[in-house]
Amino acid sequence: MSLPFATGIHHVTLITRRVQDNVDFYVGFLGLHLVKRTGGFEDAEQLHLFYGNAEAEPGTLVTFLVWEDGAPGRVGNGQVSEIAFSVPQNAIGEWMTRAITQRVPVEGPLHEFGETVLRLKDPDGIIVKLVGNGPAAPAGEDGSADLAVQRLRAVTILTETPEETSAFIQRFGYRPGPVSGAMQRMLSDTDAVDIRDATGYVPGVPGTGTADHVAFRAADVADVRAAEAELSKRNSSPTNFHDRKYFSSLYVREPGGTLIELATDGPGFALDEAPGHLGETLFVPPGDEARADDLKVLLPQFSAPGAPRMPRRDLPFVHRFFVPDEPSNETIVLLHGSGGNEADLMPLAHRIAPQAMLLGVRGRAAEEGVPRWFRRFSSTSFDQEDIRAEAEAFAAFVEGAVSGYRLDAERLVFLGLSNGANFLAALMALHPGLVRRAILLRPMLVLDDAPRTDLADSSVLMVSGRQDLAAPSARRLAAWLQENHASLESHFIDTGHGLSDEDGPLAQAWLQGAGRR
Predict the structure, then answer these.
(1) Mean pLDDT across the chain, nearest whole number?
(2) In terms of pTM, does the model score above 0.90?
(3) What value does the CA radius of gyration of the chain take, rounded to a whole number of Å?
(4) Quick one: pLDDT at residue 515?
(5) pLDDT digits 0-9 by tens, 265-275
(6) Domain VOC: where (predicted)?
C-alpha cells in the first residue's frame, strides 16, 4: 500500500569527476538550466550542482556531486544505472543528428516499452536516455522541431531482489506496469522506475560515473515524517531525516541496496535567488557561512558553455586552477602535505595573494590510500630513487604547464606544506633554476646526499614550528640552502607541524618584499 505522497521522481543525484565537462554536457548539449550551485550539505568542500527546467520544478531535476578528478566507481547492483529524459516525439531525429555532430556517444533509435529511445553517454560514461514520448513540438521557422528536454522520464535500478525492490517502490506511489525481459516497469502518474533483475551481476561501487541516489516526491514535511514513521516499522534500513534548505528529505535503502530519498516539493530553489536568476550564485550550507570566502576558492571553478575558460591540458600530474576575477600575471603553484589534495592550500594562497592565479597539484605517490609526493620507508627514511623520478616528472609538468597555459615563468611562486615543502626543497637541489621563489611551510631535508649547486637566483621563505619533530632537519635544510647561496628568510614560530595563523601574514610580507625579486 503506497504512502500519501505526490507521485513521481523529484530528482536523481549522480557523481562527476570533471565539472566543466559536466556543465558543457547538461547545459550546453542537453539544454538544461543550471538552477543551483552549493557546497555539499554533507561536505561543504564538495561542489553540488542542480540542473532542471527554468523553474527548477521537481521531476525535471538531475544533480551532481563533484568529485573533481576523483576515482571512478563501478555501476552494479544496488544502484541507479540509467536515467531517461522525455523529449518531443518528433525531435528524436534531430537529437540523433545533434549527438553525432557533437561527438556524443549515441546508440539507437531503439524501442523500449513501446517508446522510441536514444541511448547517450555523458562525459563520465553515465547512460542518459532520450525518450520520444513528449508532446510533439511545433516546428520553428527553419522547419526544425524544438529539441527541449521536458522532464525526467525514468530511472533504471539494478537489483538482485527484483520482487522486493518492486514492492518497496510501490510505497511511493508507483504501480506495476509492463514487463520486458528482465525488466519490470513501475509507473507513477508522471514517470517510471524500471527494475532490472541483475542477479549474478557485480555489486555497485560508489565513485565518479555512478549514481548516488534517486529521490521521489513528497508533498510536504508532514508526508516525509509519516513516511519516516511507517518505514521505521516496516523496513530494516535506517532512515535519516535532513533539512536541505530547498527541500526536506528522508534517506532509506530499498531491499536491493539502492539509496532512496524522499524530498518535499518546497520551499524550492527560488528561496534565495530570484526566478530567472537561478544558479548564478554559489551558496554555502547553513553553518558554513564563516568560511564562505575560503569555500569559494576551494571549490572547482567552471564556465558557462561558450564562455571563456582556462583550457585543460593533459599533463603528468592531476592539477586544478583557481582564477580570481581580476588575475595578475603571477601564479602560485601549490604542493599539499601528506593526505592532502590539489585544492587544500588554495584558501591560504588566495589570502596571501588575492590577485594571483593558483595552480594546485596532486602528488602521485600513495601511502595507505592518501596522496604524497614520494614514497617513504619510515618517518625519517625516504625512497631516494622515487624522489628523483618524481622530481623529473614534476619538472616536465612545470614546463608543460608554462607552455600549455601560457604562464609567465618569471612570475611563478611555489608554496609547499610538509611533504610538499620537502619535495620542493628536493626539486631545488635536483633541478636548480626550476624553483626560483619558494615558500616552504614545515619543511625538512629528505635527500640523503643533497648535492652542491648554485641557488643564487632563488629566494626562499621557510616557516618551521618550534614544537615540530621535523625542526632539527629544518635547520639542516636552512644551512644547506645558505651554503648553496639561496636568499633565505627563515622563521621558527610557536607551533607544531600543522598550519598556524602566523603562516599567512609571514608569507604575504615575504612575497611583497624579498619574494618579488
Answers:
(1) 94
(2) yes
(3) 27
(4) 61
(5) 999 999 999 99
(6) 8-133, 151-265
What per-residue string of b and e applies to 267-304 under the rule 16 or more CB within 10 Å gives b?
ebbbeebeeeebbeeebbbeebeeeeebbbbbbbbbee
In the beta sheet, which residues pair with residue 242?
A: 249
39 close to 284: Cβ distance less than 8 angstroms: yes
Q: What interhelical angle do 384-404 and 419-430 show, nearest 10?
A: 80
CB proximity list for 325: less than 8 A, separation 6 or greater = none
The Cα–Cα gap between 211 and 422 comes to: 39
- The answer to whether 223 and 16 are in contact (CB under 8 A) is no
Residue range 295-313: average pLDDT? 95
pLDDT at 191 over 70: yes
Task: Write the DSSP assignment of 190-217 as a string of letters.
Answer: S-EEEEEE-TTSPBPB-SBTSEEEEEEE
How much of the chain exceeds pLDDT 70, in percent?
A: 96
Q: Given this model, what pLDDT does residue 2 score?
A: 44
* Per-residue pLDDT at 1 exceeds 50: no
Cβ neighbourhood burial of 315 (10 Å; 0-12, 13-18, 19+): middle
Strand order in the sheet with 151-159: 106-112, 115-121, 127-134, 79-88, 151-159, 192-197, 183-187, 175-180
Residue type, 51: Y
The residues pairing with 334 across neighbouring beta strands, listed in sequence order, are 360, 415
Quote the longest CA-to-CA distance of the chain: 80
Q: Of 332, 168, 186, 348, nearest to 262 (Cα)?
A: 168
